[in-house]
Amino acid sequence: MFFRILKKLAANGKKPEINHGLALATLFIQLANTDNDYSSEEHELIITILENRYKIERKEAKKIIEEAKYLERDMSDTMQITREIKNTIPYEERSGVVRDLWQIIMADNKRSNEENNFMRLVIKLLGITDKLSAQIRREVVNSSLAKNKPEETRGE
């Protein structure tokens, strides 16, 4: 199905690259939409993640996001997306994907039940253990909390 949608994109004059960057961006967009509140903070973080992960310019990251939004609208099959990611991203690097996902959740400083449920599904589909995901989540949440403390309480 993933490739059928990519062909549909190409038929509409768009030429997405078939790569894990697009699959990953689609997963990020899917996550950001799970709570029906795709915030500007989440959007900016997804841009930054793509820029850093793939060493690309902001313009290219935005292009990938637009293609991913199109895919996400036509495709609700998380299993298909994660299968593409599993086929292209080695297991050793998938903990970084999980970290990115938790960072997107925490971009707006709140976690919804929908986001938590989505993560439970995705980590299983990516072959990541609950224990590793929980460890990564704690690190991201603690980092997020530390960044958002008022200046006078930091370091106390």
Characterize the structure shown.
The chain has about 160 residues and is mainly alpha-helical. It has one domain (about 1-145): TerB-like, CATH 1.10.3680.10. Helices cover about 75% and strands about 0% of the residues. It has eight helices and no strands. The chain has helices at about 1-10, 20-35, 40-55, 60-75, 80-90, 90-105, 115-125, 130-145. Helix 2 (about 20-35) runs antiparallel to helix 3 and helix 3 (about 40-55) runs antiparallel to helix 6. The radius of gyration is 16 Å and the shape is globular. The model is unreliable at about 1-10, about 15-20 and about 150-155 (pLDDT under 50).
Task: Write a compact overview of the structure shown.
The chain contains 8 helices and no strands. It has 156 residues and is an all-alpha fold.
**Helix count from the secondary structure assignment:** 8
Low-confidence runs: 1-11, 14-18, 150-156
What structural class should be given to the helix and strand makeup? mainly alpha
Mean pLDDT reading: 84
Which overall shape is indicated by the principal axes computed on the Cα atoms? globular
| Radius of gyration from CA coordinates | 16 Å
CATH superfamily descriptor:
TerB-like
Please state the second-level CATH architecture: Orthogonal Bundle
- Mind describing the biggest β-sheet? none
Q: What is the count of distinct domains?
A: 1
CATH class category label: Mainly Alpha
The name CATH uses for the topology is TerB-like
Helix content: over 70%
Strand content: under 5%
Question: Gap between N and C termini, in Å?
Answer: 52 Å
| Helix and strand run | HHHHHHHH
Task: Please count the beta strands (DSSP E, at least 2 residues each).
Answer: 0
